[in-house]
Amino acid sequence: MDRGLKFIDLFAGIGGFHIALSSLGGKAVFASEWDKDAATVYENNFSLRPEGDITKISEKSIPDHDILCAGFPCQAFSISGKQLGFEDSRGTLFFDVARIAKEKQPKVMFLENVKNLARHDGGRTLTVIKKTLDEIGYDVYDKVLDASKFGVPQSRKRIYFVCFRKDLKVKGFSFPSEEKLTKHVVDIVLPDSETEKYEIHRNDIVINEKIKEFYSDSPIRIGTVNKGGQGERIYSPLGTAITLSAYGGGAGAKTGLYRINGRIRKLAPRECARLDSFPENFKIAERDTVAYKQFGNSVVVDVLRKIMKKALEKKEVVACL
User: Fold this and answer.
1) Angle at 268 (CA atoms; ends 267, 274), nearest 5 degrees
2) What pLDDT, on the 0 to 100 scale, is given for residue 86?
3) DSSP string of 120-176?
4) Distances in whole angstroms, Cα of residue 25 to Cα of each of 91, 108, 112
5) Would you state the pLDDT for residue 119?
6) In angstroms, rounded to a whole number, what is the distance separating the alpha carbons of residues 87 and 91?
7) Sequence-ordered alpha helix ranges (H) in the chain
8) Nearest C-alpha neighbor of 72 from the set 142, 136, 159
9) Which of 108, 171, 257, 321 has the fewest CB within 10 Å, making it most exposed?
10) How far is residue 282's CA from residue 240's CA, in Å, rounded to a whole number?
11) Residues 253, 231: contact at Cβ < 8 Å?
12) DSSP 13
């Protein structure tokens, strides 16, 4: 599908959208990411330095492009309560996506956010987003998808938006069908010799040996550390990983704990990269704490790729690209 598609990458993070779309023939002509650590990783991998704070960048200065990508932050909307559209999105970071799309009119947009966006503020936030996109000329399709239902061994639910410019007259869009999971945590782990630093050795580890471990399409909790709070739960590698997180504490902060070859440990950053479907040659941040945050914030590349491929194969889209 190498058509020389030009795309821009807003709230680019470390480049999950970039990897997915470039694998389908896309070429990034602009990226924006305010976090300097993430921008450095992005540049190291793609030889493109993202611009900084998007709120300070004029939409008129953005290069022309066919596709807009944005994993915009879920930021509270101040709802005045009447039109629930473009005007109501002002003051939020989503507005920066909307103002650029309104000016540049890309043919297709791919957006992603946390699953709770769907019910934030009683559903009104989602209403504002969809009405805003409608007002600036787009047909919008959205759905919450779990990465573990699309071949990725991580339980990670996100809301995805596929937006087609109305003049393309796209006749409906269905998100990719769910598929059987064939990989689990055990299939993405590094050798023990490379993960010793992530092991924990404590006297308050409790394993429930009565729990039978078997291949599962969900996380399998088999024990706890300390009081068993978030970040203190131990899982079997025969299930999927819990959702990687950019925040949180505990002995298993950001990744959860797993009993792998009899050892209790966190996941290594490279294992987190694999759970987000990043390629093996992806250059990870040097500091583990930074890498954990970045993969916790990232999109899942394989899920995006499947959505993008299906959208870009629509005959109405093919005809105009």
Assistant:
1) 90
2) 63
3) GGGGHHHHHHHHHHHHTTEEEEEEEEEGGGGT-SB--EEEEEEEEEGGG------PP
4) 34, 14, 20
5) 84
6) 9
7) 16-22, 36-46, 94-104, 124-135, 269-275, 288-297, 301-312, 315-318
8) 159
9) 171
10) 22
11) yes
12) T
- The letter for the amino acid at 256 is G
pLDDT at position 90: 63
* Closest among 253, 263, 241 to 194, alpha carbons compared: 263
**Gap between the Cα atoms of 77 and 91, Å rounded:** 8
Determine the Cα–Cα distance for residues 213 and 261; give it in Å rounded to an integer.
13
Strand 138-146, strand 5-10: pairing: unpaired
Active site residue 74: yes
| Rounded Cα distance, 232 and 212, in Å | 20
How many CB atoms lie under 10 A from the CB of residue 245? 18
Q: Which residues of the chain have pLDDT under 70?
A: 1-3, 75-91
Buried b (16+ CB within 10 A) or exposed e, 175-199: bbeeeebeebbbebbeeeeebeebe
**Which position among 74, 163, 272, 320 bears the catalytic label?**
74
Quick one: pLDDT at residue 80? 47
CB atoms within 10 A of CB 214: 9
Residues facing residue 9 across a β-bridge: 31, 69
Strand order in the sheet with 257-260: 205-207, 221-225, 233-235, 257-260, 263-266
Amino acid type, 11: F
The Cα–Cα gap between 77 and 117 comes to 11
Would you state the structure tokens that stand for residue 216, as one six-digit string?
Answer: 């599962």
Cα separation, 284 vs 225, whole angstroms: 29
